[in-house]
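FORM 7B - TANDEM STRUCTURE REPORT

SECTION 1: FIRST PROTEIN
SEQUENCE AND TOKENS:
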Amino acid sequence: MIRSVLAMLAVVSAAGMAPAAVVTKTVDYEFDGVKLKGFLAYDDSLKGKRPGVLVIHEWWGLDDYAKNRAKQLAELGYVALAADMYGDGQTTEHPDDARKMATTVRQNIAIWRGRAAAALQQLQSQPNVDPDKLAAIGYCFGGSTCIQLAATGANLKAIVTFHAALPKLTEAEAKAIKGRLLILHGADDFFIKPEDITSFRATLDAAKTPYEFVAYKDTVHSFTVPHADKHKIKGMAYNKTADEDSWKRMRQLFQETLGH
């Protein structure tokens, strides 16, 4: 009998010590009448407030790739919200549809920045998020979106872009960027024009905006996406070395700016 009780106590004790799984849920919000569905991820075994990271998807929409990145961040102790930039959680696997959805957003700067800001507000308002320790990361279209958000003067300590197009900013907009900017680029990415990179960096330099630009040799677009080649689009391919190094650099920046 005593052995049975002790065995039961051991099981209960072990269960209590086991780390909780990452919790995920849909977060409903809206901007300018459009309903948006974000994806929130965090580890509920952690107590107190912690840094929040906004994740912004590629032009395919809020798909499993963006959601998995949010989960990875949650496993590292952050609260991560993968934003919905298209509305109703729309996704596509057809490049023509992706181009149309991304272009629709990019053509209206107020909507582009507004939807990103609405997502950041949702993240910031979470009870387990420290509102003074926020960062944003984005992939392709999402990276451009992070820069647009930062250019509004958003309260971000760090902004990280992966294989992103670099939008044109005014010097005043570049000066409005509060956090440190890390741009992770494929040196052979022909989707991003060299002159656009030169112009973007010149604007940051003129504004004295702190940033780091990393170009990976022999690396093309979508280098962080393991299944990038499934779309059969020339110039899109995974690069394991660049993927792992870029994630490592992101984590180092977060350590320096978010203290985690």
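SECTION 2: SECOND PROTEIN
SEQUENCE AND TOKENS:
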Amino acid sequence: MAERDVPRPIWEHIEELAQRLKVIFYSVAISSIIFMVLPADMSFLENPFDFYNPLIGKILQIIRDQVMPEELRLIAVGVVTPIELYLIASVVFGVIVSSPVIVYEFYKYIDPALYPHERRMVWGFMAAFLGLFAFGSAFGYFFVARFLIWAMMPFFEVVGAEPIVSIMDFYYLVFITVLMTGLTFTAPAVFVLLVRLGLISTESFTKNRRYIYAGLFIVTAIITPDGGPIADIVLFLPILILMEAAVLIAKRYESERRARLALPSIPIRKCPYCGADIPVDVRFCPECGRALE
């Protein structure tokens, strides 16, 4: 009997989940502490008693230099605001650095329940999801966030206000924009996965294309509330292109499924070791090579 078919008590699953969550917690905590205390450079060694700039301070400075317009000024509205930003930013980048550990622990938890063909599907989905998320996050940082703040600047002059904003509002805008843009860009990967699982079809997408794109446009408008229609279009166009590419990829999987169903009807059974579909008169599984009798 395959290891995946051996029943395990529920408390063993809970214990394993707790252990993997503990690894994730320690990874995020250690990474966050490193960002808090690791110096951005070694110049402080010349005068150890002088204040040094931690790594997270250097990262926040880079974000300000790359995203914030020169005429915009930041202020700390509350006394504890700098500490709050210091902690939140450290945790955010701690999660980013720990993301490989998070993905690995999640995959290892579900791996025993997967057949080989399901494992390949999961790896393909994870690669596409993470790649699109990274691409979307970079697009959100270098284009969308900058455009949002640039589009906001003229309104200070219109209403006669000084371009001074809370430092928390500025960084929240950048972080949330990058996160939401990255997640939105993963929609094509999710769509292809749902098609491969047979939960939806490309035909239903084609019939309802206008409504789906209208919903995606509303999502982009929510992500870019201060950028106006131009910012919405800037974010929506690459998502539209990616979705159309995803439809073409999903159609290929549908064609392969139809081709398999069109073959002459042959009695099949599941391999008890890898879960592959094989004819009943075959004694060795073509996927794992194990004897079936």
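SECTION 3: OBSERVATIONS ON SECOND PROTEIN
The chain has nine helices and four strands.
The chain has a mean pLDDT of 83.

SECTION 4: SIGNATURE
Preparer initials: ____
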